[in-house]
Automatic annotation (TrEMBL):
Organism annotation: Berkelbacteria bacterium GW2011_GWA1_36_9
Enzyme kind, highest EC tier: transferase
Catalytic reactions of this protein: [GlcNAc-(1->4)-Mur2Ac(oyl-L-Ala-gamma-D-Glu-L-Lys-D-Ala-D-Ala)](n)-di-trans,octa-cis-undecaprenyl diphosphate + beta-D-GlcNAc-(1->4)-Mur2Ac(oyl-L-Ala-gamma-D-Glu-L-Lys-D-Ala-D-Ala)-di-trans,octa-cis-undecaprenyl diphosphate = [GlcNAc-(1->4)-Mur2Ac(oyl-L-Ala-gamma-D-Glu-L-Lys-D-Ala-D-Ala)](n+1)-di-trans,octa-cis-undecaprenyl diphosphate + di-trans,octa-cis-undecaprenyl diphosphate + H(+)
An example molecular function term from Gene Ontology annotations: peptidoglycan glycosyltransferase activity
Coiled coil location: none
Record's protein name: Peptidoglycan glycosyltransferase RodA
Length: 364
């Protein structure tokens, strides 16, 4: 099916604005349903983030994305500085220092790092498409390793995992020899036992809980157990927005962010949550469609990496709500509460629209 007839008059891909807007509105409704009686200002903050983010997306739509190619290294250096500052001055919440208090806004540099690292990687892969060799491989691992290391110190394993996943996706779609890629994947798998010793105690506990939540149902397994109960209590049609007993009786922690999919399932049931998943997957499909239409390799690599990152975040977030993935704190794009996440995703959409606006069929 061709979507050309749905395009707006000036050639913008309607899906890249309409679908995220629908998801954001849906998220606002869900956030309101679980916070209006205890933290009513959260939903107002989320609405403000959406408006600001949408303005940023519109600006970036008409800003030539190719200019970001030359700015990417400068943006990367800024992000590294911010990640260092958050370790020194960051506000600590639930034992993690992830936010810098700007008084009017809590900035989470690790969210911005996702976007900036992808921009820089897209530049490197585009500029070395035909001669990508060992020195480039070492370079990209170093450039990704620095922010990943700093994010892990916060600690924020989920975001670090997202950034590293973006690199793996770009390696897969690059011209690197597949034997090298297979060797990298094999090395990562073999290094898992070593990496286990570097995990924090609570991170190890989350993995134990993922394997068997019943080991500590009132401790480390509590969130997962309550999320699964919340999802199941929604049934086919749900208990109604703001009516779910699991949510209103505060059995489900952070129901407005990490576990917002469970909130959705209880409120609108299997049918409503399935529709939400369809919207999210359609957004990923639209982003990958931008990659197919990109005018240059820089646009192609950015779009393909961001599309896969979105898919990864959706899979992990919903998976941890269903108890099939460990709890990592990865937000559900455009739906979970979070200003930095919303602004980052909206900015990425603006860049994608800019790529689409200037597209021609890419040739290799």
């Amino acid at each position: 099916m061709s979507f050309k007839k749905f395009r707006l008059p000036w050639g913008i891909d309607w899906a890249l604005f309409i679908v995220p807007l629908l998801l954001s509105i849906f998220g606002v409704v869900m956030i309101f349903s679980v916070t209006y009686s205890v933290k009513p200002l959260l939903v107002i903050s989320q609405i403000i983030y959406i408006f600001i983010g949408f303005a940023v997306a519109i600006f970036l739509t008409f800003f030539d994305y190719r200019n970001l190619r030359s700015f990417s290294l400068f943006l990367y250096l800024i992000i590294i500085v911010l990640l260092i500052l958050v370790l020194i001055f960051g506000d600590r919440t639930f034992g993690a220092a992830r936010w810098i208090d700007l008084k009017v806004f809590q900035l989470q540099p690790s969210e911005l790092a996702k976007l900036v690292v992808v921009l820089l990687l897209a530049r490197i892969f585009a500029e070395n498409q035909k001669n990508f060799g060992l020195k480039h491989l070492i370079l990209v691992f170093m450039l990704v390793g620095i922010p990943v290391f700093l994010v892990l110190q916060q600690p924020d394993f989920g975001t670090a995992m997202v950034i590293f996943f973006g690199l793996l996706c770009l390696l897969f779609f690059s011209n690197i020899k597949k034997v090298i890629l297979i060797s990298i994947l094999a090395g990562l798998i073999l290094s898992l036992p070593v990496g286990w010793h570097f995990l924090k105690t609570y991170q190890k506990q989350r993995i134990y809980t993922f394997i068997n939540p019943s080991l500590d149902p009132y401790g480390s397994g509590y969130n997962v157990t309550q999320a699964k109960i919340t999802v199941g209590s929604g049934g086919l049609l749900g208990q109604g927005i703001g009516q779910g007993t699991q949510i209103q009786l505060n059995f489900l922690p952070v129901a407005h962010s990490d576990f917002i999919f469970a909130t959705t399932a209880e409120s609108v049931g299997f049918i409503g949550s399935t529709f939400l998943i369809i919207l999210l997957l359609f957004l990923v499909y639209s982003v990958l469609g931008v990659a197919r239409k990109a005018k240059d390799l820089f646009g192609f690599y950015f779009a393909i990496a961001w599309g896969m990152i979105l898919l990864f975040q959706i899979f992990v977030n919903i998976g941890m709500n269903l108890g099939i993935m460990p709890v990592t704190g990865i937000p559900l794009p455009f739906v979970s509460y979070g200003g930095s996440s919303m602004l980052t995703n909206m900015a990425a959409l603006g860049i994608l629209q800019s790529i689409y606006l200037r597209h021609r069929k890419i040739t290799f």
